[in-house]
Specification:
The protein is an alpha/beta fold. The protein has helices at 13-24, 26-33, 47-53, 63-68, 85-94, 104-121, 137-144, 159-171, 175-184, 193-196, 199-213, 232-240, 302-319, 365-375, 406-417; strands spanning 4-9, 37-43, 58-60, 74-77, 98-101, 125-126, 150-156, 223-224, 243-253, 258-268, 280-287, 291-298, 350-360, 380-385, 394-401, 404-405, 422-431. It is built from 15 helices and 17 strands. The structure holds L-homoserine (HSE). L-homoserine binds at residues 133, 158-160, 187-189, 195, 200, 299-300.
Length: 437
């Protein structure tokens, strides 16, 4: 059988990794796919550099030339961005091609439209590389767990943030220094605010929630809070209390609706997830029949991401000639059974909290604080008061609460901040036990 012909959009970190992995493992990949996979042409911004890297591939500057080329069977989109990428993918589908993409932003924001068009054209859109780099989480959620009712997912799904938090904790490095290191190592997004402000994680969470719960993409409803406001002090206090701070993407099905949230989270240091350090990603899935399962691995980088792209290429190659009705649905559930579910606002979310307050060191202050918490039925689980230095009048108090509704914590914070004995803003970080029962 003739090889399947690929048109590559982008020859950056992931594009190059894809070429390298396909070349190096060509024999095994062909034996698995049942036919060869050949990169027929590629679109790149720097033609000379691209030609130098892949002299056997036809390189063009205009990505539309790849998408419109009649010899291309599958378009691999690893150029990123929203436009013209959205237009390129829709055009590829409308001209009868299949698509493999690593573009989480595009899928989270325009996936509903893209999958609808794919449905009409009978095209496949594969996107394993869009979530957690090389970790096969899409395949796991979509195929491996089809017997289960998925209850919740909690993931470290942004390598750059995890790298920054790990280095701040272990080496006491500053936020800015570590961010620069992550950029030099090629982990960060073109716009690093996507990494540190939780937007990249929110894109990935949107995709996982859609597949886990059979609902359309709802990126606009994800509560997103990044790590840029975290201080070394909070990382250290959390450690003293037996916790680590991770940027988590969490989605949970409750009787009232689905939670969709990305924020820094204290998790017990004894959990496997707490020990996932550096650029590594990890996704913990709680499903009713299986229980909890943790997938961990590189969430970024050239060859790890290429591993997911090439796995998709093999899948699409195998299913290329199959009747669209017999393929695995894009979002795990048959399109006609996808349904809207209420998405909970943060006010409605139930979780536990870490609070850090700077208080005036005098009698009765703690009583004022605990009265406010008691009035709002917030129960304290642990407390730490730092010894003041000889000259200081203000001391840090750290409290961990039991589970409560976020609305109550917010009300308590407003009342506590109004006390004269409290200085400045109260730091509030959410806390999850990741209890697997
Ligand atoms: N910038 C992403 C991260 C990599 O740091 O995890 C690809 O999603």
């Amino acid at each position: 059988m003739n090889p399947v012909r690929i048109g590559l959009l982008g020859l950056g970190t992931v594009g190059r990794g894809t070429v390298t992995v396909l070349r190096r493992n060509q024999d095994d990949i062909t034996r698995r796919a049942g036919r060869g996979i050949e990169i027929r042409m590629a679109a790149a911004r720097n033609l000379a550099k691209a030609q130098n890297f892949a002299s056997d591939i036809e390189i063009v500057a205009d990505p539309f030339k790849v998408v419109d080329h009649p010899d291309i069977d599958i378009v691999v989109e690893v150029m990123g961005g929203i436009e013209p990428t959205r237009e390129l993918i829709l055009r590829a589908l409308r001209s009868g091609k299949h698509v493999v993409t690593a573009n989480k932003a595009l899928l989270a924001e325009h996936g509903n439209e893209i999958f609808e068009v794919a449905q009409e054209t009978g095209g496949m859109v594969a996107f394993e590389a869009a979530v957690a780099g090389g970790i096969p989480i899409i395949k796991t959620l979509r195929e491996g767990l089809t017997a289960n009712r998925i209850e919740w997912i909690a993931g470290i799904i942004n390598g750059t943030s995890n790298f920054i938090l790990s280095q701040m904790r272990s080496d006491g490095k500053t936020f800015d220094d570590v961010l620069r290191m992550a950029q030099d190592l090629g982990y960060a997004e073109a716009d690093p605010t996507f990494d540190i402000e939780g937007v990249d994680a929110a894109h990935k969470l949107t995709i996982m929630a859609a597949i886990a719960f059979g609902m359309p993409m709802h990126f606009e409803s994800v509560y997103t809070e990044g790590i840029s406001q975290l201080t070394g002090k909070d990382i250290q206090y959390a450690e003293e209390l037996g916790y680590r701070i991770k940027l988590l993407g969490i989605t949970r099905r409750t009787s009232e609706g689905v939670e969709l949230r990305v924020h820094p989270t204290l998790i017990p240091a004894k959990r496997l997830m707490a020990n996932v350090e550096g650029v590594m990603n990890a996704v913990l899935v709680k499903a009713d029949a299986l229980g909890a399962t943790l997938l961990c691995g590189p969430g970024a980088g050239s060859e790890p991401t290429a591993s997911a792209v090439v796995a998709d290429l093999v899948d699409v190659t195998r299913m290329h000639t199959a009747d669209p009705e017999h393929r695995v649905p894009h979002l795990a559930f048959q399109p006609k059974y996808l349904c809207e579910v209420p998405i909970l606002s943060m006010d409605q979310v139930r979780t536990a909290y870490y609070l850090r307050l700077s208080v005036y060191d005098r009698p009765g202050v703690l009583a004022d604080i605990t009265r406010i918490l008691a009035d709002l039925e917030v129960s304290i689980e642990a407390m730490l008061q730092k010894e003041p230095s000889a000259s200081a009048q203000w001391v840090d108090i750290v409290m961990l609460t039991h589970m409560t509704v976020e609305k109550r914590i917010n009300a308590a914070i407003v009342r506590m901040e109004a006390l004269e004995s409290i200085s400045g803003k109260i730091t509030r970080i959410r806390m999850e036990s990741l209890d697997q029962d």
